[in-house]
Design goal:
Two copies of one chain form a homodimer. Chain A has ten helices and no strands. Helices cover 73% and strands 0% of the residues of chain A. Chain A has helices at 2-9, 16-30, 37-44, 48-54, 58-77, 87-99, 103-112, 120-141, 146-168, 177-191. Chain A is mainly alpha-helical. Chain A is elongated, with a radius of gyration of 20 Å. Chain A has two domains: 1-65, Arc Repressor Mutant, subunit A; 78-194, no CATH class. At the A-B interface, helix 8, helix 9 and helix 10 of A face helix 8, helix 9 and helix 10 of B. Chain A binds a DNA duplex through helix 3 and helix 4.
DNA sequence: CGCTGTCAATACGCGCGCGTATGGAAAGTG
DNA sequence: CACTTTCCATACGCGCGCGTATTGACAGCG
């Protein structure tokens, strides 16, 4: 009975996956720099001794966590809207879904603030390239000329990155729900041709 | 004669200002985290002993350097275009000047990647507020409705922040000069009403 | 020309976070 | 119920960067 309670608090014994998820949580909340093995261990209710059984080094954990995020992110963000046939509708839906602040975007933003890490930069280049390609193709299909489509994709992606940074880091005052919705519709109207 | 040569290499004796400028250089090149007193001392050709005569602590140097940047930035970025009467022209000129990658923007981008520092966050909020106000006013004067002007200002500022991040950190492939000019004109056309 | 104030070098202590070593507990296995 | 495997705790060493203490060099001034 006591053991059952304890099991609800914490799986009593951890796997590598638990550490990876914990690392991603810390990244989302306090950035990559906050992923320290001892603090993360405290968070999970164990000590370092556990960590170094599952991972050889802190970098190995980071690697595993980032790979996990990259997989999840790909099928959380672009995946759901990819099947939409109409390019404008596909873009609108992407914008709206993105605006509903999924955790993946919070982590993305945190990672943008940690590009000095050797692990993070190439990852973000891959993700950026995929998203830029996705946007460019959609804009082309929507009738824009090649160079214009590339420019617009870059502009839209810049607006995405900048907005995340400004909002999540509270550089700019927080909007209420109605304002937020209104802003999203404004960007859709401004960045998607009609 | 030898002394003259040495004086050209380095002012032979430093002032607090030299350290502040050195700190800003390091921030621009490698981020806030790279501002370490010993490495910065090496860069200036002296040792720690010098630093702690000019500053009580590393935080004090950061504070001074950031204040210096905030002053310079204000009169480098918004200052020159503020007198332009026509709001659209004022915005266009701001966009074009901003695109000519002044050092101030490089530092701005580096600081955006260091918001976890207690010193940086409030500074960036102040700077962000000033720029958002500037943009909002210009858009209103250009004839946009209140809420639309705020939205557009936010969108433009997001695009600015995101573009800096993506370009400077090489997340997105580098453009050649012609492409770059073309992109700037595309954003001007997309974000400034006619 | 000596004295004082300014800037710098050297040596040291300290805290923090990574990684190691080693022993112990709990869960599966025959 | 032995015995092995899996997971975890404790204690320790180490490097790095901040900050301090102390002494030294050099310029300007009286």
């Amino acid at each position: 009975m006591l053991s059952i309670v304890k099991k609800l608090e914490r799986p009593s014994r951890l796997s590598a996956i638990d550490w990876e998820i914990g690392a991603l949580d810390m990244i989302a909340e306090q950035g990559v720099g906050a992923v320290a093995v001892e603090s993360l261990a405290r968070r999970l209710g164990v000590t370092k001794g556990s960590f170094y059984w599952h991972f050889a080094t802190r970098e190995a954990l980071l690697k595993a966590a980032l790979e996990r995020w990259e997989r999840d992110d790909e099928q959380n963000v672009l995946g759901p809207v990819e099947p939409i046939a109409d390019p404008r509708e596909r873009l609108r839906e992407l914008f709206r879904r993105t605006s509903r602040e999924i955790k993946s975007h919070v982590i993305y933003s945190a990672l943008m603030g940690a590009l000095e890490h050797a692990q993070v930069a190439p990852l973000m280049r891959r993700v950026g390239q995929r998203r830029m390609d996705f946007l460019t193709i959609a804009y082309r299909q929507a009738g824009m000329e090649r160079s214009q489509a590339v420019h617009r994709a870059r502009l839209a992606y810049s607006a995405y990155v900048g907005f995340l940074q400004l909002s999540l880091q509270l550089i700019v005052p927080r909007m209420d729900h109605a304002q937020y919705e209104s802003y999203v519709e404004h960007t859709i109207a401004s960045l998607i041709p009609d």
